[in-house]
């Protein structure tokens, strides 16, 4: 029952597109990530995925549209929906993710950026 | 796949200890609440509960200790652990909760403050 300081946890790593696990809530996990430029188009067939922007602006691309998600905003990507998280102008963005422990980093896609394990902070 | 602005959602209600549901992620829900003074001692036998402080300082009391949770910090209360969320000096605190759809507001306790349904925003 420790208090988790998000800024302090974020200060412990630098790599982009490398989620770090800070907590587990039942069968879900809280991840922190620093992201920059474009990720990988993918979907999660069986899991929803929540993104909360802690710093900067996330552009969540979908096949037919995109959503701009600013600091203090949340977006939930429903299961089965292809998405590609992106940032603009080479800016680093800090996000919190809330998702099942079973959710794979790049879903049904295997890519150079794919992580199969998340370090714990 | 709408973007949810936490400040805008919080501006839509005033009542204390009245969680409002802003999103569902699989079998869990995201709630926003404004809290002030002391809640009710209770526990959730089967569900963990995540609290994220968006504004102010939450004092999470446990039977043998307490944790101070400031803006930008998170605490996860494990299932089965008695807790009593509190604020100090009559200050209003804004929190985000992440918990199962089955989690009862005051767990195993029925109290005057107990809500059996959460309005959706």
Main traits of this protein?
mainly beta; Jelly Rolls; 121 residues; 5-stranded antiparallel sheet; homodimer; 3-stranded antiparallel sheet
In short:
Chain A contains one helix and nine strands; from the N terminus they run βαββββββββ. With 121 residues, chain A is mainly beta. Chain A has a single domain (14-100), classed as Jelly Rolls (Sandwich).
Overview of this structure, please?
2 copies of one chain form a homodimer. The first copy, chain A, has 121 residues and is mainly beta. The first copy, chain A, has a single domain, classed as Jelly Rolls (Sandwich). In chain A, 4% of the residues lie in helices and 43% in strands. Chain A has 1 helix and 9 strands, in the order E-H-E-E-E-E-E-E-E-E. The first copy, chain A, has a 5-stranded antiparallel beta sheet. The first copy, chain A, has a 3-stranded antiparallel beta sheet with strand order 6-5-8, with no helix packed on it. In chain A, strand 2 and strand 3 form a beta hairpin. The longest helix of chain A is centred in the N-terminal third of the chain and has 5 residues. Chain A is globular, with a radius of gyration of 13 Å. In chain A, 36% of the residues are buried. The mean pLDDT of chain A is 97. The interface between A and B is large, with 37 and 37 residues.
């Amino acid at each position: 029952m420790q208090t988790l300081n998000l800024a302090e946890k974020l200060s412990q790593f630098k790599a982009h597109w490398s989620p770090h696990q800070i907590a587990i809530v039942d069968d879900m996990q809280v991840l922190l990530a620093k992201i920059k430029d474009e990720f990988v188009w993918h979907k999660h067939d069986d899991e929803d995925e929540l993104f909360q922007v802690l710093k900067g602006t996330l552009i969540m691309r979908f096949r037919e549209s995109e959503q701009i998600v600013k600091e203090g905003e949340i977006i939930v990507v429903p299961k089965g929906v292809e998405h590609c998280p992106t940032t603009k102008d080479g800016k680093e963005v800090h996000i919190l993710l809330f998702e099942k422990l079973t959710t794979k980093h790049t879903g049904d896609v295997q890519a150079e950026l794919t992580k199969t394990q998340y370090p714990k902070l």
